[in-house]
Amino acid sequence: MKRSNPDQLIPRKRKRVSRETETTESPKEFNLKELSKKHILQCISAIFHLTLEQLKEKNSLLAEEAQPVFMQVTSVRIPQMPRRWMRILLPHSIVASDDEVALFVCDLEKGRRKDYEPTVEHYKNLLQKHGCTRVNEIIPMNQVKTEFSQFELKKKLIGSYDHFLVDGRIAGHMSHLLGKQFFKKRKLPISIRIDSKDLKHEIDYALRKTSMQIHSDGDTHLMQIGNTAMNEKDVLKNILVACKKLSKDYPGGWANIQALRLKTKSSLALPFYMTLKNKNTVNPRTIMIQPKRPKAYRDVEGELSTVTGAATVIVKPEGDVIVKKFRKSKGKLMKKDAEN
């Protein structure tokens, strides 16, 4: 009698795992070993050489000027969040020696008809007292309202200076006065404490910061990481610090970063880090960030005088109103809730 093979009687079924049903992995932590410093230096050197050759072909005068170098961040999953700016403190400043820096300051005397020249002289003397030489122009808030109120004048202001600083006391008011062009050109003013005891250190500290706008319009975000006048090793240090910051504060962390590239305004983007991970490996919950709520975003409770008897009303931030009525019964207070 011939014995049958048990493998033939019970066919084995292969489990098919589609990409859509893949389970999400735990967030991966940033590891410096994943970035090749040698490869990054090669990309930086290639970007510097490519930019120099392009400028020589167009105009020999521009070849001597420092050109900004950007780092392009591509995400695996598009972040689901409102527009937000990420500030990163770099070890080496991205401001070149020939860059123009303007400072927005608060007016000493309020009013559109007031002369702002005394305000300019006051802050010039303050900067000279602290030995600050990086600020090239002081622009009072009154001057912005009177001389740069039109769209074309604001565009001219953006093109006149490379970097902008702002007094922290008026930082919230300047964002809507300057308009959308400052956001599009990535020249949003950096806030400083003008009353600091060491104002020179405060300004140098602010000029070491770079910013990147995170949005849900696409999977690519851009930040300035250096300029062509810097040493290549200094640009490398800026890149490593920025990558460490992205691993903590970027939506989804390091696991949501698919590619990192270097580029200038007119050059191609050279990748120095790239991964082929599937988007299902990123947990969708980690890329969803709720908008920031103001400090007044809380429940408000008070007495209600329009109702007979003792009653209180609670108003929630979403608009819900809850009325609580109290009545005496057998020496005890009975509570009745009614929602409107």
UniProtKB/TrEMBL annotation:
<feature type="region of interest" description="Disordered">
    <location>
        <begin position="1"/>
        <end position="27"/>
    </location>
</feature>
<dbReference type="InterPro" id="IPR028364">
    <property type="entry name" value="Ribosomal_uL1/biogenesis"/>
</dbReference>
<protein>
    <submittedName>
        <fullName>Ribosomal L1 domain-containing protein CG13096</fullName>
    </submittedName>
</protein>
<dbReference type="InterPro" id="IPR016095">
    <property type="entry name" value="Ribosomal_uL1_3-a/b-sand"/>
</dbReference>
<feature type="compositionally biased region" description="Basic and acidic residues">
    <location>
        <begin position="18"/>
        <end position="27"/>
    </location>
</feature>
<dbReference type="Pfam" id="PF00687">
    <property type="entry name" value="Ribosomal_L1"/>
</dbReference>
<dbReference type="InterPro" id="IPR023674">
    <property type="entry name" value="Ribosomal_uL1-like"/>
</dbReference>
